[in-house]
Design the sequence.
């Protein structure tokens, strides 16, 4: 097997490892986000909270998507960069 084939398999393994890590982190991050949102101090279900608390609730809600999406994007970028770049 030539070096280009070896690099392809190596980057594919890195892609799979990062993808597995992203999927492994997802349940824990989701439960942590729910715990934060349902705490008495933040009270995201209350409609009369301050703008600061509403922003905190929104950021807490979308942080899981950005973190997991970022890891999946990183894995895809690593996989495609080695295939496209000689």
Sequence:
């Amino acid at each position: 097997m030539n070096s280009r084939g070896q690099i392809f398999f190596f980057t594919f393994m890195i892609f799979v490892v990062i993808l597995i890590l992203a999927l492994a982190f997802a349940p824990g991050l989701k439960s942590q986000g729910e715990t934060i949102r349902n705490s008495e101090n933040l009270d995201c279900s209350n409609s009369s909270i301050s703008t600061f608390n509403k922003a905190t609730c929104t950021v807490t809600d979308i942080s899981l998507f950005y973190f997991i999406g970022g890891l999946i994007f990183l894995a895809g970028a690593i996989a495609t960069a080695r295939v496209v770049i000689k």
User: Anything to note?
Assistant: The mean pLDDT is 84. Residues 3-84 form one domain. DSSP finds two helices and no strands in the chain. The radius of gyration is 19 Å.
